[in-house]
Amino acid sequence: DNIPYVATMLPVLRGERAPGAEDCRNMLRAACLAGMAIAQTGCSLPHALSYIPTYDLGTPHGAAVGIFLPGFIKEAPAEQTAPMLEAAGFGDVAELERFLAACLTMPQLPQALREKAWAKIISNEAKMKSCCFPVDGDCLRRIAGAGGQGDGIQV
Fold it and tell me: Chain centroid to CA 13: how far?
């Protein structure tokens, strides 16, 4: 229900037009609905991983979530992600990545910080089980970009 509110903001976020009053209302609605969803279900893996760069580097929290979101979407089943990407106005995850890179200051996270974020979440059994698709340590490494033996991550 939240995605259409955010999708209306894409032209503003891309710098194609200035925000109007309705845009501001839509972002407030989106923020409110997001907060309500987190209160009911807990935060997603990208959100949980993002606390480490936010705390340790001072990375703005939204940008920190954006660092991990594409990896999460790549790991999730396409039948779950395709409708979400479409509703948000993106053809695929590569388009989302380009958008995030253009709109957010996306710092390069040191490998040690990615490993720290991975370790924080992998040790939280409840967080791992709360994901909307099965996630193991290797999958979480790919989402976090934490590297590791045999997963082929390019960071």
Answer: 16
